[in-house]
Amino acid sequence: MRSVLLDTGVFVSLLDKSETNHNKCVSFFKSYQGQLLTTESVLTETSYLLGSSINAQKSCIEFIVKGGATLVPQSLSSLKRIAVLMEKYRDIPMDFADATLVVLAEDTGVNEVLTLDRRGFNSYRINGKKSFNILPVD
Question: CA 134 to CA 16: how far, in whole Å?
Fold first, then answer.
């Protein structure tokens, strides 16, 4: 089964109809068949960016609970790797949520990422070598 990593910007755009990329993200989700993987920090960042509305935050949680994406927790070893990556990419800069997705890519071998952060994910490398395939395609 095909797996893709889910980043914050796409998650927010999917749930918030006022977002510029909402329709593009909805179209992707309607046609995508496979598994989405994300991290707790992406979930946290998405809930925060959706604002203080309980309904908006609840829709974010329900997306995960209903199987929209698999939530992968961090381990102590992944946290150590995240710190290394954030230092390496400090000029971009790499935030914590992005670093968790890069580590998840390294741990799973998944190199496709559903993101609106083309600058970051065009620069990041999996295990220092392999580039990401960025979705949705413009």
Answer: 21
What per-residue confidence (pLDDT) applies to 128? 95
- How large is the angle between the packed helices 40-49 and 54-65, nearest 10 degrees? 150
For 134, the token pair is 């960025």
| Whether this model's pTM surpasses 0.90 | yes
Query: Residue 35: enclosing H or E segment and its boundaries?
Result: strand 35-39
3-135 placed in CATH 3.40.50.1010? yes
User: At CA 8, angle to CA 74 and CA 21, rounded to 5?
Assistant: 165
The ranges assigned to domains in the chain are: 3-135
Give per-10-residue mean pLDDT for the chain (138 aa).
96 95 94 96 96 91 96 96 97 96 98 96 97 90
